[in-house]
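Thread title: Can someone regenerate the structure for this chain?

I was given the following input by a collaborator and told the matching structure tokens would be attached. They weren't. Posting the sequence so someone can regenerate them.
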Amino acid sequence: MEILGALTFLNTYTLAELEVGEHFLWKIGNFTVHGQVFLNSWIVIGLLVIASLAATRNLQKIPSGIQNFMEFVLEFIRDLVRNQIGEKEYRDWVPFIGTLFLFIFVSNWSGALVPWKLIELPSGELAAPTNDINTTVALALLTSLAYFYAGLKKKGLSYFKHYIEPTPVLLPIAILEDFTKPLSLSFRLFGNILADELVVAVLVLLVPLFIPLPVMALGLFTSAIQALVFATLAGAYIHEALEDHHD
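Best answer:
Regenerated them for you:
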């Protein structure tokens, strides 16, 4: 009877519900779209656009408020890209790497700060876009395309010479690296964000009051670090493609 009563209580008052792999699917023509990822991604993009417009609407010589904050963010991104790519060529890559960093950062923090689970969907649940493997794989593939583009733009077809340098024996390993880089980027980001949200959800289920708070604070720190790591590695890969190997 006691067990039955406990089960009835849990069924009536669900404190947390863990669902891995379920999606709210939209059919758009012949395409299937993950609705909750699509919605949250555009929410993040909307927040970034609004912040950019607010910061540049009335520019002042002596910045203050959101303009001052956004200029600080821009300087941080410039320093990050300059340190990874180098003084000569970093400017062209500030927009791309800065966009990656800001999108991942805001996405990660939206999962840690916004109570998405209060919004009910027919299936699945709203969460950070980066806790879905499709989002992280897309970002990783964009990074791969970016460093291929960087190498081909600077060196032309001679870019592919590095696959057989210093010896053609290394060709299989060099090709394998092009597959492992996006895999590493995507699964590192996805795994860390998903694991953090699952840990918080489990703690809320077991101890719903104060114990999850330090873990949530740690999750905010981890989310910021993951955005920084992704952007740093993207810059490092682009620098590697631009690097003149015979120097």
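Confidence is low (pLDDT under 50) at residues 1-20.
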